[in-house]
Model the fold of this input.
Amino acid sequence: MNKGTAIVGFLLCFLAGMGLMWGIDHQTPGAGKAAGISAEGAVAAFDDKNPWSDEDAAVSISSKDPTWGSRTAPVTLVLFSDFECPFCSKVEATINQLKETYGPDKLRVVWKNNPLPFHKNARPASLAANTVFNLAGHEAFWKFHKAAFENQRALTPENFEAWAVAAGVDKAKFKAAYDSKQFDAKIDKDMEVGKASGVTGTPASLINGVFLSGAQPVDKFKAVIDEQIKAAEAKKAAGVKADRVYVELTKENKAKNPPPKGRDEQKQDDKTVWKVPVGENAPFKGNANALVTIVLFSDFQCPFCSKVEPTLEEVLKAYPEKVRVVWKDNPLPFHPRAEPAGELAREARAQKGDKGFWAAHDLLFKNQQKLADEDLLGYAKELGLDVDKVKAAITDKKYKAIFDADQDQADELQAQGTPHMFINGRRIVGAQPIDNFKKIIDEELPKAQALLDKGVKPADLYNELIKDGKSPPPPERKTAEVAPADAPFKGGKDAKVALYLFSDFQCPFCSRVEDTIKEVEKNYGDRVKIVWRHRPLPMHKDAPLASEASQEVWKQKGSEAFWKYHDTLFKNQKTPEGLQRAALEKYAEEQGGIDMGKFKAALDKNVHKAFVDAENAAAEKSGVSGTPAAIIGPVNGKEINGFFISGAQPYGKFKKAIEMALKEAAGGAPAPAADTAKKDAPKPPAPAPGPGKKPGGGDVY
Done:
């Protein structure tokens, strides 16, 4: 190619690119006014023929942001989110419920990218989504967004391309723009807006500028939205144009409620003493009878835990023999390599004592970016451990009971996130500067010495220091009507304890909790009656009929057939049209033994709708607003007053609630919450007969 041809080619490409960008800024996404809102909150018609900007708002937004809802909606929810964050995935169901409740004329949802640094796939996913948005508009973005959250563990370039094409984007154009990072700068701009608004983690919602952090219950969102609808109406009555209400309200709300301080600026509540048991078998370093004990809840894959390690070493050097550091495992769910790394460290302790544990601990933090199985086995060899035993510990999750107990304790103490520490029971959060540690330690030393001077034995000192400390709040309880005779169940028919599972066949979080429920069934057998309670949520359009279909299967063939059909529904939950009428009939026919004439007639006539509606009403009466949710307690007459678990929580939470309920059913009081973590490895419950075998929350920087 000669020089002249190259120049001409460059100019043509430049002009074509300018034309494309003009078209993007001036296109009308969607297809006019939408007749309704689809179940998963797909974009409602967004009339945006001309570019607009609310850059002068306290939380700036514009037509260059992916948006759902009307430009003149009285309430705008700006969501700072991360495609890899599990809490962001959790809040999506809440956002969809809000869309369904308020509709596009009252609520506008604006997406802002906030990929966190420790989620390696989050930024590429944001880039892919932003590329889809710029090439095909709002509706295509929300289609891609839906696919990404439904496949959160499969955020790969290949899938990005497939989801983009499925959203209506030209494959070649997407690939060229994505590979060249053509639309990457928007991500940094979003993050700057977030930082100025006080966003330090995900998900973070600003509702007309009112800050709401984490995956909060839907009622918390509704309370703010309802208040802001009234405020917006007052503004319009005062003469403010509908498309300027957002700007005015964000400024007012920011003045009344300034953005929260960042993680490192947050004032520590370091005066309250919490009752934090050390346990009988926790690794520690420093003097066993030290005047000051630091209980550290940590995670080998957490970058902030790595940052606090040098500070703790400085503390030990600055206070020789006066401080001990006690380790507690809290592998966070979005750090998949934290638990395997913890298995290595615990096995190192089993083989070589505390010295072996801390040697493994140091090596793991030194190589925090390399925690694959092959890496861990290499470290085991370097540490002189029996590699086969380490491999077996990782594969079999040998020390999972210890992790569960530590995580239960962290949960009870409201120790959300890592690193989280208690200095003689006084809370300190995050990778704080050493002076913050020294301040508390210097205040605690004379208190401890005074107790020794009064005759307290050194071995009893720590327990004496925390004995009057604040205990964790009791677990939440809810009351539910006894399940009707038609409710499918498994486990012990006459068990003294029931687990009522309020669930929805189309809810992705309900799908996630299924393995946990199976683990409960396996470990408790006939000691617990697991009862299915239908709770199809309004934003899941296929869920009600799926519930009716499963109930017809129960009517014809009983509980065993119901659970088999139930498993098939969850297995096909994410399949296109996997819960629609034709599929429901197919699954019933394939299962065998179902009278298909009666089955089809039951769906035609909605024979079981009244039953499903009654179960939904029972859930609402119990205060169960989302799914999955469980109430676990002794069966008492016409109701159960049980321990409430919201969301797809880990097995440890279910186990703790079941154990307390069993104790209560046997005539004893439930174990105090603070006493449940006294031992690192509590005994597992008796196995079931026959074959058998973690709010709201959010990610922070």
About this structure: The chain has 23 helices and 20 strands. The chain has a mean pLDDT of 86. The longest strand covers residues 629-636.
